[in-house]
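Re: that chain you flagged

S.,

Sorry for the slow reply, it's been a week of failed gels. I finally had a moment to sit down with the sequence you sent. For the record, here it is as I used it:
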Amino acid sequence: MRKQNSYREYRLKSYLNMNHYIIINGKQGQTHPHTWEFVSTIIVAGDDFVEFRTFENLIEEFMEKYQNQILNAIEPFDVIVPTIENVTDQFNNELQKLLRENGGELVSLEGSETPTRSYIVSHRNEPEFLERIGKIKAEQVSGMIDYVVEQIVSAEKRKH
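Prediction finished late last night. Pasting the structure tokens below so you have them in one place:
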């Protein structure tokens, strides 16, 4: 049995085969491949069931345009150097909007271009994230109060 006012937390891994090059001190390095791994942690408030595929499909569709591409040739990475930090930050911004529009809240996004190095963007302590979670909790409490009052009123009506 799960506690009331709880969250469902989902962790989804996505893999992209992408090539990129880095410009250091004005010199372009060699184009080279990576299998990039992105780990999205998403929460959904309450006890509503959400199929993993709901979020997986959204993320896969978003990332499809980058699959097997040279990242430097795709906006915004044609002007932003596609380091793991910049790629993860950009993906985070876009995925955060996409997931919110579909009932999820992005807690963190971890990006890796090698198995030994990761860059993580976490929203757990951001005031905006905490405010959104607070609103979701308030909506849950309000919904529970409405439900309890409705049950009491219905029981009273049945008595009379």
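What I noticed first: Strands lie at 7-20, 23-24, 27-28, 32-45, 105-114, 117-122.

Talk soon,
D.
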